[in-house]
Amino acid sequence: MQLVFSTAALPPVALLWRPTTEKLPQTYRPIRAQRRQHGIQIPGESRTEISHRAMHTKELEDRIRVQLLGAKHQPSSYDTAWVSMVPAQCVPQAPRFPRFVEWILQNQQDDGSWGLGHLDPYSLGKDAINSTLACILALKKWNLGDEHIRKGLHFIGNNSSCITDENCDTPIGFNIIFSGMIMFGMELGLEFPIRQSDLDGIFRLREMELQRSWLQKEEEIIMDTETCALAFRILRMHGYNVSSDVFSHFAEESRFHNSVQGHLTDTKTLLELYNASQVRIMEEEQALENIGSWTSKLLKQQLSSNRLSRSLMTQEVEYSLKLPFYSATLELLEHKWNVEHFSTNSIKMRKSAYLVHEESTDHILALANEEFSLSQSLHQQELSCIESWWKEVGLDKLKFSRRIPLNIYTFLASTVFPREFPAARDAWIKNCFLTTAMDDFVEDGGSTEELENLVALIEKWDAHTEIGFCSEQVEILFSAIYRTNSQIGAKAAGVQNREVIGHIAQIWLDLLKASMVEVEWRRNSYVPTMEEYMPPADLSFAVDPILVPGLYLVGPKISENMVSDPAYHDLLRLTSICGRLLNDLHTYKKESSQGYINSVLLCALRDGGSIEAAEKEIWRRMVASRRQLLSLVLRESSPIPRLFREIFWNMCKAAQLFYLQVYDFRSLHELVPARSS
Q1: CB within 8 A of 129, min separation 6: which ones?
Q2: Average pLDDT over residues 308-322
Q3: Which of 169, 304, 310, 456 has the highest Cβ tally under 10 A?
Q4: Looking at beta carbons, which pairs linking 477-482 to residues 24 or more positions away fall under 8 Å?
Q5: Whose CA is closest to 598, among 612, 577, 580, 613?
Q6: What is the full DSSP assignment across 426-472?
Q7: What are the Cα distances from residue 398, in Å, to 434, 473, 477, 484, 604?
């Protein structure tokens, strides 16, 4: 007979339901299938080595798939104990399932406990006491295992402090179930080595729980909350039309606090709720906004008081709060973090703890390491190419330009374009450096004559020799822009089967003209309105010249009609607004000292001079634009392919990380080493 396994983590009700007749979201080929098709090459690899690596990867995937289908879990001592107490139909003095009783006798731990407490005595203390007491009751019911019972009671007495310790992971319904087992044990004649004051405290908690008339309903909801939040986030981010109404029960913090005691401080559930709240795409989804507010507050409180309810959670919580899941999560960083913290023995807690140890976990870890190593090898190749290009075009000779570490942009490129598109990543990285150099030239390095000369050169583009250069730094900057983007345009023409360099040149001209507007405002001491400020400011954030040349290299055809489509311009506009407002929030002090104006300063001037209020207002506008952008990205039907929409979203994520804490790139150094680990 098969032993009982805990199934408490498996949601009994489908909280997220999708009609089978609903049209599936617009998708493209799975990323791993694309990788095998493109045959990604590590520097120095031969075709035979590439083929062997691809074959090994597929073997791992196939093995994992087979093992997952046949996965087994460790038996649950708690559930086994309760089943073993069922009497035989015709002989009520004997157990109906004697093999379960025998399993209990054979599986007591050396310390007298049953369950998984020996794996993590502190976090799993309550579960170990719960499971141990259930097994004691089963043996006592059938008058078996006196020595086992004695050792079990001794264990409970030695660990009774866990019973009321809020920092221990708590099985669902513990306050009711444990106190009920204590009463049942007393009826069976057991004497518990627990102080009377502690027993009184246990029974008081039980009475408080029983007074809540809706207890059972809330318990069922809580059992599913973590799974529901995770499913909601994944489905929504993959374009499925799922409703956030399933979270209405937790729109208010008090509803969570009034739920089953076992999950009052469950960090994992709080974190999944917080992450789910970050994929809000509609203004009317107020429940998600409320959940995001109170879960972030509780998570910060748990961090500051060191009261996280599960082990190895501190870094994960800090990571999610620092980089909101949907706006700035870096897949490569998340990949590295998951590899480092991946456990082949995963403990899950519901009414009892159970251990998931699948043979596939070792292979999953091997596959993850293989993926990460490949990404690292490709990154090193990209970095080497950028270093050569940087010197070749002479950017190292521009004294006015900020010295940004070369690995910053190569690192960020991993969030914008998947590694299947190396040419697009290369174009993105180079144009990041070029737009930064132009920004520095416009703001600090160029005279009026030089700026006008640069405008004329970009207007002429291929015919720039008719103009000539008024200075060496103009020659270096224009030549770098011209040569680099001409090469990109030539590659893009092969991909698109049409010339696109005219569009790329126009993008650069629009950027420079928008930047010149801001220069003129400063020179004339003119203070624009917010309505006047935003259009050129959006353009000068440079999303167009950074992102669009790379889009032409991705593969799907980008027609002139698509580039002029309102949907395309909305994606571009919202991405630019998000980046511009983030930039302004982090640079207004510097720009104020240099005589420049930005949205924070304009908002403060308009509203009576309060910088703090202005920061909140600009942040609110940025969040609203970001929400609109995500809504466009996840929209089921659009004239813009889903792949392109996701790249715009990735650009927004990269900007969020870029302005994570400070503008001088210091905070990024905490994250960049992950790419060379």
Answers
A1: 113, 117, 155, 156, 159, 160, 162, 163, 178
A2: 69
A3: 169
A4: 477/398, 477/437, 477/438, 477/441, 478/454, 479/393, 479/394, 480/393, 480/394, 480/395, 480/434, 480/437, 481/434, 481/438, 481/508, 482/457
A5: 580
A6: HHHHHHHHHHHHHHHIIIII--HHHHHHHHHHHHHGGGGGGT--SSH
A7: 11, 6, 8, 17, 35
CB-CB contact of 225 with 269 (8 Å):
yes
Q: What span, in angstroms and rounded, lies between the C-alpha atoms of 317 and 312?
A: 10
For the chain, the 3-state helix, strand and coil shares in percent, each to the nearest 5, are: 65, 0, 30
Task: Let me know: does 262 contact 171? Beta carbons within 8 Å.
Answer: yes
Six token digits for residue 441: 């030239």
E strand residue ranges, 486-588: none
How confident is the model over 198-221, as a mean pLDDT? 59
Residues in the chain: 677
- Residue 258 has φ and ψ, to the nearest 5°, of -90, 5
At residue 344, the pLDDT reads 54
Exposed e or buried b per residue across 262-283, where buried means at least 16 C-beta atoms within 10 angstroms of its C-beta: bbbbbbbbbbbbbbbbbbbbee
Task: Identify the CATH homologous superfamily for domain 363-676.
Answer: Farnesyl Diphosphate Synthase (1.10.600.10)
Q: Which of 575, 574, 524, 566 is nearest to 547 (CA)?
A: 575
Tell me how far apart the alpha carbons of residues 145 and 165 are, in angstroms, rounded to a whole number: 30
Residue pair 289/248 in contact by the 8 Å Cβ criterion: no
Which tokens belong to 433?
């450096």
pTM above threshold 0.70 = no
Task: Find out whether 516 and 451 touch, Cβ atoms under 8 Å.
Answer: yes
Distances (CA, A) of 640 to 181, 344, 570, 647: 61, 41, 11, 11
Whether 363-676 and 215-322 are alike in CATH topology: the answer is no
- Average pLDDT estimate for 50-69: 67
Which helix (H) or strand (E) segment holds residue 346: the answer is strand 346-349
Rounded CA separation 443/52 (Å): 52
Residue 136 region, left (φ>0) first, then alpha (ψ -120 to 50), else beta?
alpha
* pLDDT recorded at residue 261: 33
CB of 432 closer than 8 Å to CB of 409: yes
Q: Which fold has domain 215-322?
A: Glycosyltransferase (1.50.10)
Query: Among 113-127, 541-555, 589-603, where is mean pLDDT lowest?
Result: 113-127
For the chain, give every domain's residue range.
Answer: 77-210, 215-322, 363-676
Q: Tell me the C-alpha distance between 226 and 268, whole Å.
A: 7
> How many Å apart are CA 170 and CA 57, to the nearest integer?
40
Residue that is written with structure tokens 């403060």 in the block: 604
Task: Name the CATH code of domain 77-210 (choices 1.10.10.60, 1.20.120.450, 1.50.10.160, 3.40.50.740).
Answer: 1.50.10.160
- Residue appearing with tokens 């991705």: 554
pLDDT, tens digit, for every residue of 577-587?
999 999 999 88
Distance (Å, whole) CA 491 – CA 479: 18
What digits encode the pLDDT tens for the residues 599-638? 999 999 887 778 889 999 999 999 899 999 999 998 878 8
d(CA 19, CA 616): 41
CA 242 to chain centre: 19
* Nearest CA among 199, 193, 195, 121 for reference residue 162: 121
* Sole residue written with tokens 């270093």: 387
Asked if 599 and 533 count as a contact pair (C-beta separation under 8 A), the reply is: yes
- Output DSSP code: residue 121: T
Question: In angstroms, how far is CA 177 from the centroid of its own chain?
Answer: 36
For CA atoms 432, 437, 442, 444, give the dihedral sign. positive
pLDDT tens, position by position, 316-349: 787 778 766 544 444 555 566 566 655 555 566 5
Of 508, 391, 529, 530, give the one whose Cα is nearest residue 441: 508
- A 10 A CB-CB count for 34 gives 16
